[in-house]
Amino acid sequence: MAEKFTPWDAADYLETEEDMALYLDACLEEDTGDGSLVRAALNDIARARGMSQLARDTGLTREGLYKALSASGNPEFSTMLKLIKALKIRLHAVPATPAKPRRASRKKQDGELSPV
């Protein structure tokens, strides 16, 4: 009997909110800058959560979500934020590189330099 294979689908493995958040975080790190990986990740997460419910939660149509998150989609940033909020995921900004120690600045007062 021949083995039967089905295509691998990330949505099948996104079972918890933590799974979804970690997956999106990894895709944000690896995206090349065109947003295609992030859009694909949001598509996977949306399908795992349930597209119909997300459509209701975001106020967007189900078809509109499928189109926006498709490989050819180009969703507005506001759409992405609505979706992320409805998925109950938070985004945080952190510096891409470690901060360098700051040098003490000095101001000139009455002809003298003094530390601030």
Question: Would you kindly provide a brief summary of this structure?
Answer:
With 116 residues, the chain is mainly α. It has helices at 17-30, 36-49, 51-58, 62-68, 77-86, and strands at 106-109, 112-115. A two-stranded antiparallel sheet has the order 1-2.
**Percentage of β-strand residues:** 5-15%
Distance between the termini: 79 Å
| N to C succession of SSEs | HHHHHEE
Q: What is the domain total for the residues? A: 1
What's the CATH topology name?
Answer: 434 Repressor (Amino-terminal Domain)
Main sheet specs: 2 strands, antiparallel
| CATH class placement | Mainly Alpha
Assign an overall shape. elongated
**Architecture in CATH?**
Orthogonal Bundle
Mean pLDDT: 88
Strand runs, count = 2
Our count of helices gives: 5
Enumerate the spans where pLDDT stays under 50 for 5 or more consecutive residues.
Answer: none
Structural class: mainly alpha
**Helical content (DSSP H or I, runs of 4+):** 40-55%
Give the C-alpha Rg. 22 Å
Strand adjacency order, main sheet:
1-2
What labels describe this entry?
116 residues; mainly alpha; 434 Repressor (Amino-terminal Domain); two-stranded antiparallel ribbon
Detailed description of the structure:
- With 116 residues, the chain is mainly α.
- It has a single domain (10-94), classed as Orthogonal Bundle (434 Repressor (Amino-terminal Domain)), CATH 1.10.260.
- 46% of the residues lie in helices and 7% in strands.
- The protein has helices spanning 17-30, 36-49, 51-58, 62-68, 77-86; strands spanning 106-109, 112-115.
- Strands 1-2 form a two-stranded antiparallel ribbon.
- Helix 1 (17-30) packs antiparallel against helix 2.
- The longest helix is centred in the N-terminal third of the chain and has 14 residues, at 17-30.
- The relative contact order is 0.11.
- The model has no long low-confidence stretch (mean pLDDT 88).
